[in-house]
Amino acid sequence: MPPAQPPVCQPPTKLLTALEARAPLDWLSVLLYSPHLIFARRGNGAPVMLVPGYMTSELSMRPLKLFLNKIGHNAHDWKLGRNRGNVRQDVERVSLILSELYEHYEQPVSLVGWSLGGVISRELARLHPEKVKQVITMGTPISGGPKYTFFGNNFKRNDNLDIDQIEREIHERNLLGITQPITSIYSKSDGIVGWKASLDRYNPQADNIEVFSSHLGLGINGKVWRIIADKLAS
What is the pLDDT of residues 147-165, one digit of tens each? Predict the structure, then answer.
């Protein structure tokens, strides 16, 4: 059963946030995990759209895009440049790109979203169930929005934003549910988004998968890539 009230979570500790400096080590995991990636399940040319996180652009997901294309998928950028956090506006704009891919390939599109990009991806799946095949998120604040993130204190200082109200609004959206397969990849050592906020407690088909990674390293992590490859090919 979906939670009646917004799940109680915690933002990451200051120590975990400081440890985000280890992200380059996570990037090296692609090399260390390369033997497993060689035998990753192959794609069949189906479309995939990659949605970057807050204040990052398509470049942050370029290595993942190259990998997915290499193993037989047709991976595409979201084409909007830097993600500046305008979720409602971005959902409207990305909906047009989603429709273009859906019409071009004549089949639903899989969405892979990193952090805030996952929020946008989940909303697209909710609004366009016929055009979205599945959603895979990495370190996405599913519960609470900014409340349980590194940025939460900044929102608290802004008198024009009520993060508790934002949390309630997000909870109401989550209660609407998503029908497609969902994978939420999270790390307990995430220093940007509190890991409990990345768990999908609303949809019974959701698969919450733990990895060991910094938040900034999730999109360039060998084990994460293998999980994404297996999910896309399943």
Answer: 999 988 666 666 577 889 9
Low-confidence ranges of the chain (pLDDT < 50): none
pLDDT at 155: 65
Q: Is the dihedral of CA 158, 164, 169, 175 positive or negative?
A: positive
pLDDT of residue 158: 61
Residue pointed to by tokens 């692609």:
30
CATH architecture, domain 15-39+49-233:
3-Layer(aba) Sandwich (3.40)
Of 164, 210, 217, whose CA–CA distance to 187 is shortest? 210
State the Cα–Cα distance between residues 186 and 211, nearest whole angstrom.
6
Tokens of 39: 């035998």
pLDDT at 103: 98
User: Computed from CA positions of residues 226, 228, 233, 234, in that sequence, does the dihedral angle turn out positive or negative?
Assistant: positive
Helices (H), the chain: 14-18, 23-32, 34-38, 62-70, 87-105, 116-127, 152-156, 163-175, 222-233
Q: Walk across the sheet containing 74-76 and list its strands.
A: 74-76, 47-51, 109-114, 132-138, 182-187, 207-211
Q: What is the pLDDT of residue 157?
A: 60
Q: How many CB atoms lie within 10 A of CB 10?
A: 12
Contact 108, 124 (CB under 8 A): no
Predicted TM-score (pTM) of this structure: 0.96
